[in-house]
Specification:
heterodimer; A: about 120 residues; mainly beta; seven-stranded mixed beta sheet; four-stranded antiparallel beta sheet; about 0% helix; B: about 110 residues; five-stranded mixed beta sheet; 9 strands; globular
Chain lengths: ~120, ~110
């Protein structure tokens, strides 16, 4: 089945130690999104790629970076994780940007723990 | 961004219809109303969306008022597996579409 895959499902890192989360998709969608969801809060959009074009949200900290080497893969890099970065990180895809009557398909998420 | 207002929580008996309201009084003419849900510890799941007409699919029905300032998601026969947080989202009509999630409604379906 076509889907959005996130690995690992759980990631433990140390304070200040760079960490990379990965997302892959078999849907061949043009847009890939990264969301951060802290405990008991709603998902918050960090940034998204429309093909190779990167679109950062204005309030996304510089500590968060992203790479999209090809259509199928997208990575979230946290350069120096702090305790406040512990959260569920959700990857989503859509064929075209949402707002043009297009839905997003979410992966299961990666839960990041910062020690 | 158009903002949405939803009740924080609702209960529903299994087998009954669940009606989840959403207010979006500042919605623009080209903005769609989307509904997603998130079962505990999973990624959000698309349910339905609409512009101004009522919509129905295999999961739910969406009723949008004529002035488009509010909508209601209807799960016709709620089951225990429908227990989740339901998000009503108004999507930007710009070329770079984004989803901005509000707090959502925690729906609990009781046996």
């Amino acid at each position: 089945d076509a889907m959005v895959i996130q690995n690992p499902r759980y990631q433990v890192t140390q304070f200040g130690k760079p960490v990379t989360l990965s997302c892959s998709q078999t849907l061949n969608h043009n847009v890939m999104y990264w969301y951060q969801q802290k405990s008991s809060q709603a998902p918050k959009l960090l940034f998204h790629y429309y093909d190779k074009d990167f679109n950062n949200e204005a309030d996304t900290p510089d500590n968060f970076q992203s790479r999209r080497p090809n259509t199928s893969f997208c990575f979230l890099d946290i350069r120096s994780p702090g305790l406040g970065d512990a959260a569920m990180y959700l990857c989503a895809t859509s064929r075209v940007p949402t707002g043009q009557e297009e839905t997003q398909y979410f992966g299961p998420g990666t839960r990041l723990l910062v020690l | 961004d158009a903002k949405t207002t939803q009740p924080p929580s609702m209960d529903c008996a299994e087998g009954r219809a669940a009606n989840l309201p959403c207010n979006h009084s500042t919605i623009s003419g080209n903005e769609y109303v989307y509904w997603y849900r998130q079962i505990h510890s999973q990624g959000p799941q698309y349910i339905i969306h609409g512009l101004k007409n009522n919509e129905t699919n295999e999961m739910a029905s969406l009723i949008i008022t004529e002035d488009r300032k509010s909508s209601t998601l209807i799960l016709p026969h709620a089951t225990l597996r429908d227990t989740a947080v339901y998000y009503c989202i108004v999507a930007r009509g710009s070329t770079l579409g984004r989803l901005y999630f509000g707090r959502g409604t925690q729906l609990t379906v009781w046996p």
